[in-house]
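Dear colleague,

Thank you for sharing your sequence with our group. We've completed the structure prediction you requested, and as agreed, I am returning the results in plain text so they can be pasted directly into your records. Please verify that the sequence below matches your submission; if there's any discrepancy, let me know and we will rerun it promptly.
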Amino acid sequence: MSTMRGAIKQVREASDSEAARTALTSAISIIDRTVRKGVLHANTGARYKSRLTLHVQKLS
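Please find the predicted structure tokens below.
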């Protein structure tokens, strides 16, 4: 969970869109792994990914 929270924070604090995109791919992978292990519900993981993706799109 703490790794996932850190990855989400890196996406949110990225200064430019390229850094945000690379952080987003890493964060999505970590969120998927967290869901696969059963720590998060699948819908919660999907919600996190959706909100992060929208955030990165707004930076572009």
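Summary note from our side: The helical segments are 2-12, 17-36, 42-59.

Kind regards,
the structure core
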